[in-house]
Specification:
Chain A is α/β, with parallel strands linked by helices. The first copy, chain A, folds into 2 domains: 303 residues, 3-Layer(aba) Sandwich (Aminopeptidase), CATH 3.40.630.10; 112 residues, Alpha-Beta Plaits, CATH 3.30.70. Helices cover 34% and strands 23% of the residues of chain A. The first copy, chain A, is built from 12 helices and 14 strands. Chain A has an 8-stranded mixed β-sheet, with helices on both faces. The longest helix of chain A is centred in the C-terminal third of the chain and has 21 residues. Chain A starts with 5 loop residues before the first helix and ends with a helix. Chains in contact: A-B, A-C, A-D, B-C, B-D, C-D. Chains A and B meet through helix 8, strand 9, strand 10 and strand 11 of A and helix 8, strand 9, strand 10 and strand 11 of B. Strand 9 of chain A pairs antiparallel with strand 9 of chain B.
Chain lengths: 425, 425, 425, 425
Amino acid sequence: MHTLDDAYREFRRDLHRHPEPTWREFYTTARIVEELRERDLTDLYVGPDALSTEDRMNVPDEAEIAAWEERAREAGADPGIVDRLSGGYTGCIAVVERGDGPVIGLRVDIDALPIRESEDADHVPVAEGFRSEREGYMHACGHDAHATMGLGALDAVLDSDFAGTLKVFFQPGEEQVAGGKQMAESGHLDDVDYLFAVHVGLDHPSGEIVCGIDGFLAVRHFLAEFEGAPAHAGARPEEGRNAVQAMAAAIQNLYAIPRHADGPTRVNAGLVGGGTATNIVPEESFIEGEVRGATTELAEYMSEHADRILESAAEMHDCEVDVATKGEAPSATSDAALSAIVGEIAGSTDGVTNVVESADLGGSEDATFLMQTVQDGGGLACYVGVGTDHPGGHHTNTFDVVEDDIAVGVDVLAGAIHRVAETRP
Amino acid sequence: MHTLDDAYREFRRDLHRHPEPTWREFYTTARIVEELRERDLTDLYVGPDALSTEDRMNVPDEAEIAAWEERAREAGADPGIVDRLSGGYTGCIAVVERGDGPVIGLRVDIDALPIRESEDADHVPVAEGFRSEREGYMHACGHDAHATMGLGALDAVLDSDFAGTLKVFFQPGEEQVAGGKQMAESGHLDDVDYLFAVHVGLDHPSGEIVCGIDGFLAVRHFLAEFEGAPAHAGARPEEGRNAVQAMAAAIQNLYAIPRHADGPTRVNAGLVGGGTATNIVPEESFIEGEVRGATTELAEYMSEHADRILESAAEMHDCEVDVATKGEAPSATSDAALSAIVGEIAGSTDGVTNVVESADLGGSEDATFLMQTVQDGGGLACYVGVGTDHPGGHHTNTFDVVEDDIAVGVDVLAGAIHRVAETRP
Amino acid sequence: MHTLDDAYREFRRDLHRHPEPTWREFYTTARIVEELRERDLTDLYVGPDALSTEDRMNVPDEAEIAAWEERAREAGADPGIVDRLSGGYTGCIAVVERGDGPVIGLRVDIDALPIRESEDADHVPVAEGFRSEREGYMHACGHDAHATMGLGALDAVLDSDFAGTLKVFFQPGEEQVAGGKQMAESGHLDDVDYLFAVHVGLDHPSGEIVCGIDGFLAVRHFLAEFEGAPAHAGARPEEGRNAVQAMAAAIQNLYAIPRHADGPTRVNAGLVGGGTATNIVPEESFIEGEVRGATTELAEYMSEHADRILESAAEMHDCEVDVATKGEAPSATSDAALSAIVGEIAGSTDGVTNVVESADLGGSEDATFLMQTVQDGGGLACYVGVGTDHPGGHHTNTFDVVEDDIAVGVDVLAGAIHRVAETRP
Amino acid sequence: MHTLDDAYREFRRDLHRHPEPTWREFYTTARIVEELRERDLTDLYVGPDALSTEDRMNVPDEAEIAAWEERAREAGADPGIVDRLSGGYTGCIAVVERGDGPVIGLRVDIDALPIRESEDADHVPVAEGFRSEREGYMHACGHDAHATMGLGALDAVLDSDFAGTLKVFFQPGEEQVAGGKQMAESGHLDDVDYLFAVHVGLDHPSGEIVCGIDGFLAVRHFLAEFEGAPAHAGARPEEGRNAVQAMAAAIQNLYAIPRHADGPTRVNAGLVGGGTATNIVPEESFIEGEVRGATTELAEYMSEHADRILESAAEMHDCEVDVATKGEAPSATSDAALSAIVGEIAGSTDGVTNVVESADLGGSEDATFLMQTVQDGGGLACYVGVGTDHPGGHHTNTFDVVEDDIAVGVDVLAGAIHRVAETRP
């Protein structure tokens, strides 16, 4: 195809109207599962069957999960499916076996962001009536398009003479780098020989395909909670153990972790707070922050320094600190053998006007967990970029995709999957 | 009297049921004015007529004010009076002229605190059915008793052969040290020759009178709002101007303002926060804090240092900062000539078992603005402590007063006012 | 006497020409001992016999001690005496027993400061030819006068009908608050019933006597030495463990130790340094600092916080820190019973024109160790101030004393000692 | 040649025995000029004639310069030449014109380091008797070899049929990145069409030639001097303006300058200090530090942030700060057209066993000023690495070069100069 078929368009718009954040993708998963059930699949793993259920990161509290579950039901999601996702175990995996051949995976992510979508009349979802119906949440990074590509590529492979096994991973919780690890550790990646992942946009225009994206910054999100003791700031300042002083000492020194000669590192104290009132020595404070590195080792270097700084800043002011990891992703590299195949296919795909061998993401992504699992098992992995003219930047309230570019992505991915099954590079 | 009359008891309990914070004392002021209208007053100044209306500190936003105004109406406050308080100009001044004599003032404060009152069955307001009806707010510092003492003392003076002028100042906004300055600058203090202020409790037991309280820490509450520029913490950290780094540098250095040889100083960054998300360089942050000093000069010393630190911390990280004063009170000293009279009266007052010459507050209070205005004009001022066995500490959710101690306070204050009018010390 | 006798004048000027710092008072001690040997003493304890030799603080290195020892010999100090002071065990104690009576102590300090004395022709030691012959060192705090008073008071008591035991403590190392502890723990204070200590000047003019000085700030001097690891700042910044970052974090937070409601506290990072070259990540750094408190408890509060901050600042940057106490003194209070006697005597002493009951030192002094030892043993102690018109402030290069005021001090001290022996207050 | 001739060996060892730091290369320059005078030069520019004399960075004080000048004379340097270098204007430029052809430059640096040379018997300069005679200083970076290569290459070109102009730049003050700017701005680079610079070692073994070195970090050395006001830390802490607090705030925040997405940056507070005594609030402090960047723009980014931080840290503690640039170098890139020629020549040079196309310096070098000047004028520049088995690392006390590798360097450089004159690439 070259123009996106109406069925896929409707499907993408339905997801766009129902954006759901990490571990709350009830409606989204249910809609995907409903579609998949109509296909001739070998296996379909839903929710807890598609994930490792141990040590999930950044799980919202029960009330929050229940509220989104309820919203999904109200919006018409299949109650039986929603039941299977209970506790926020979202996402699913579709498997088709077609004769003798390698196991090939395609990973797409499905979650949305806490951004209020633009009401501008020029914003296409507004103009065409599929603006977010979850006020304050939005598909501002194209994961609605990704889920659609996953479905489209599955259909294209099913329609072909593909010989092998295809697994499509509909992964939850990418935006908080919390879902990738759970899916990577589900066991379903263990026999995958070749893995593709995909992203739209990334400042690449419509018609451009990036064959292999690299430059993933390994990342760790953390939440540090400091606890001291309150005191009346006028009457008994010495009785306080000041959690805000501890927090400030930590912030100052976090940003001052030494630069590393092996490559870029990052650190940010992105959301902080503490104390209760002007005249009370603050008992509590927190830092929600992150560290990153161009390699997994560099991120670990930053993480170790951050832990030590947080711990000693607490101790410095006689406070306690609890540091929890809220999200995580390693670095990864696309294998040239796979991206070469993507380049070949893209070169002869309608709608592709420019083929770029490789580009850097310059950010973080937890597809890397899945890529790493496959590569550690001796397989190959490749992260493909599908250009699209997005009016607003990623994570802004006017982000949108050109829907026909979804069709281009489907053609490239399905073509590459087919070729890989044939050639086993 | 020696036991509190039922009318006063009911009045106090009515106020206790309707606690209202700074600039939102609509019901409280209305109830006081309703009572005062029944007295034979020379003058009654209400709301904006009782205050300087310029440069009010810490005024809530309009919606917040409107909500409390509405609550007051719903609770049955006289709509005409509430109208006169529009915009949050709360408080009032009662004036009685009785022949030739000095002008004597009595200042009582009327506002409440953002504390949720205990539901413990042993807590008297629970047991006797007058627990706060404003969830999350409470008279946890006895200002309901103070307002009642103001009314009681006025009645006692009216009942006596007092010769002179008595002004009773029902002051709003003490808890945020925001109301004292406005009332002090209203002009109504300018002709006051002698001023009394009063506080219950302060860890002095029932039966104890403190003739003159000193040791008021001069104080300034400030709100510093930092503004920088956001950036993606992974992709473009250098484009950020980090308001959280500015805040942290300020906090570290605020607490490090040099100690002063002339006396105690204090500083606290009591409530702080900043940033929006883990991966965004923080654009905004704030510090709600305070500085104090044993004298007004010491508080100014701290305040100047704090301003310079906040300003240069912002500049250090290429941010802007706006520093606003949210509350303020100078230091003050009780005049011995007045406290001597209080001691004399207290010594022969029923219910008084212990007379203490003086004690230190060790905290802050904006009655000092009124005291200072009177003293600067050549008059005398005295801050009187009326002991009461309070089960919980001040500003805790089980604070309460022994109501009969209100009667003791009324006797001492009215007696002292009468004696001062006679003796003009 | 009323004018200082020439012998004492010469003695004082000899000491003034040979100023010696802590644990290096070889010439000074030798000259005192030479003088004492000419008196009819019961006992004379020199050097290690006058001190506890355990855990001496702030002892210079051997080469430094040897150099001063050599200078003393060259200046004509008795070699036998200098031998007994070997290792820098300086100072001495003179004891006279005269029949039945209490044991009374007089403590004077004898060390000098690392200050280069003024060469101004108006500076009396220049004009009269007794300027310091130890370039860079100076008696800028009057300890030359104190030693002379000790000798003079001893002589005056010997000349009187005094009945009891007098011990004169010539204490080394006061300026670094290092000598007092050693002398206090020597055992020689254990039987002292009454102790006097004395200081000239302190901004009190000639003719003024302060009967009992209080307000000694308890103090601890510390040296914190940080050790990390060096690295090339351009090529391998991550390999450094930055001792200067640790030092900076410590400094920021030391000054921010919470103020204490019980009284004044102090902290200072007075001499700091670190690193070797612009392009090397600093391996080493140090802080020479101090904490003080109005009471011994307050100084301990500061000291505990300082230790914790130094330790965690080191840990924060993966460094080690070694914190050593270099000097120490507790707080103390003059006993009113003794200062009353000083007041009585001063009131009838020639040359005294003003008697001040008490005054605050507002600084630190390790006479307090001796005072505390006596007071802990049930005795009384009193620190006396002898006014003098000093042209420059204490610890400045133009400090000097009016020599006749030494005679006034001797009369007051000897008189008080005599009276105390009679009255046993 | 292939083995270094004795004359060059003697020359190199003479320089090695007389290591001289930045702006103090009196003996070194004199010896070079003496040699050059024996050649048939077209021009010889010495000292101030070889440099821009404006805004020299990091000039030692007069006494220091005079002392080194005197040492040079005593060691037998030609007094007339030393006179021409008066004031520390060291270095020289040799010019030979040989018919029609391009202007080709060769830059070698001549200064030494403040490192005490090893006395180990295995250290060749010890074993062969040419250890440093300037205690505490050492040619620990091979600039003695560089100067010798400059002379050798000049001789080789003079011996050839070279047609064109050759300028050999004997540059002072590289180690403090202070001399390059002055020579670059002398005017003598303005007509240079091709420039070579050279460095031995850099962890490349004997026999290896690096044709074009890149990866120069742009750098700025700065000295920040803070000035506040002293005060007695016990008696009057509030009167101090604490230069050590300002320094500590600056250090904390310097290291926390945001990382930059465009490439590596560096910052170091390498040598810091402040204060005078434990009990004095510090009046003065300083930071000797540096910032670097992979590009000149990145170094400027760091420099601007550093300046702002230093300024506002001073202001924060009511201090003044003076920030001076003590050394500076931009980044630069070797031109491929020149390094290709170096590769060609090296490939056929005796003694060369390995030719490396390019490598990163990963440090800073002020040859970049000269390279930039030539490149800005439309010329080409290339920085060549000549491998040598150096036993100790650069800037360590056992650094040394294999002297025959100097001969290899001479052959490669002279060969490349000759070829460039022919081919004008």
